[in-house]
Amino acid sequence: MAKKTSTTKKTAARKEQATWGGRFSQGPAELMLKFSESVSFDARLAPFDIAGSKAQAKMLAHVGIITKKECNDIVRGLDAILKEIETGKFKWNIALEDVHMNIEQVLTKRVPAAAKLHTARSRNDQVATDMRLFFKDASAKIFEKLGTLMNTLLDVAARNQDVYIPGFTHLQRAQPVSVAHHLLAYVEMFSRDRERFAAVFDHANWSPLGSGAIAGTTLPIDRGFSALEMDFVDDRGNARVTRNSMDAVSDRDTFIEFASACALCGVHFSRIAEDLILWNSSEFGFVALPDTFTTGSSLMPQKKNPDSLELLRGKSARLHGNLVALVTMVKGLPLTYNRDLQEDKPPVFDSFDTVMISLDVLRETLAGASMRADRCAAAVADPLLLATDVADYLVRAGVPFREAHHVVGHLVALAEKEGVPLNTLPFEKVKKVHPKLREDWVKVFDLKTAMASRERVGMPGPKQVKKQILDWRKRLV
Ligand code: ARG
Description:
mainly alpha, Fumarase C, Chain A, domain 2, 19 helices, two-stranded antiparallel ribbon, two-stranded antiparallel sheet
C-alpha cells in the first residue's frame, strides 16, 4: 500500500496527444485513460462519424471557411480511413479516448487541412449527430426485421388456421381459439413495436450539428446544408435542424425512446417464448420445436430443452435493464453535456444487438416448429371450453345473461358430481335445471359451429382469421 502504484503516477498519453492538451502540463494517468476511454465501444460509430465529418467538411467549404481543395482532401482521407476500419486495418488507440478523436488524429497526420475540420464543431454536437444517424439506421433495421418476423408468424398462422387449442385466462382453460388467432395476437404486438421504431426514427431525424459545445458558434456556418448532406430531411426533402443548441447537445430522449421500444419488444419476445415453452412441455404437448433451436441435457438423455425460447425470455431482462440504466443516468443531470452521458452508448448498443439477434432466433424457432394436431385436438375437445356458449344459447332463448350464467354453473357442478363430461349429462337431468334447456342444447358443443359463430371483427372465427391474415399480408408488402 505504501508503494505508489505506477498507474497513478504514469501518464500514458502525451499532453499534446490529446486534442484538448493545450492548457495542461501533464497528460492523463494511464488509469484515467482506462477509465475514461470509450473507443472500445464507440468505435462502431465510425461510419456515422465519418458521414458527419464529410458533411461538416462540405459545409465548411460551402460557406468559404475552407477551400474546395481542402474539403476534397479531407473527404478522400476520411473515405480511406473508413475502408481501413472496415477491413480491420485501422489501429484504434485508447489514449485517444473515443472514436471521434481517433479518426480526427489519424486524419490530421495524413491530411494537414483536417486541422480545420473541427471548426465550429464540438464533440458534444458530433456525438449527438453520430448517435442520431445510428438511431435512424438501427430503427430502420429493426423495423424491417420485425416485418420479416411478422411474415413468418403469418406463415405459421396460415398453416394452422384449423388447428384449435384452448385459449387460457389465469392459465386455466377458457375458450377455444385457433393457433392462427393466438399467433395473430403477436402480429398485432409486433406491429405496434414497428410503429414505435418508426417514431424513434422520426424523432432522431433532426440534425444537431452546428450546436457546438452548448451555444453554437460565431462563425457563419450553414446548418441546413450539413443536415441535407446527412439526409436529416422531412417528407418533402427539406432540411431538419434542431432548434435549441442546449437541448441538442444534452437531450437523450431518443436514446430512452429507442431503449424503451426495445424493452417493450422484449416483453413481446418473452411472452411468446413463454407461450411456446408451455406448449412444448409434455403436459401441453401442443408443439414440437426444431432440434436446431433446442438443446439436450448433459445428464438426462431424454431431454430436449427449449433453450432458444428460454434465452429470449432471459435476454428480455437485459433490455429492461438497459432502459432503466438510461433513465437513471439522465434524470438528475443539469444542462447541458456531462461526461456521465458517455455511458449512454453501451446500453443502447446492447439493446440493439439483443433485439436484432432475438428477432432472428424467434423467427427461426417459429419457422421450424410444428403444431401437434392430435394433442391440440384432445385438449380442445374439453366441453367445458364451450360452457359460455351454453349460456349464450339460453340468452338466445330469452334468459337474462346473469341467470344463464348461474344455470350453466349448476350444469357444470352437476357434471362434476356425476363424474361425466358436461356434454354427456343425460337430458332428463339437464331439463330439470332450466325449462329453456331443450334437447338441442348439446349442439352447442360442436366445435366447428362454435368457431363459425365468432365471425365479427377481431374474433377467432375461421373466416375472420383468414381475413386478418390476408389483410396483414397486404399491409406488409
Ligand atoms: N466520448 C464522448 C461521449 O461519448 C464524446 C463527447 C465528449 N465531450 C466532452 N465534452 N468531453 O460522451
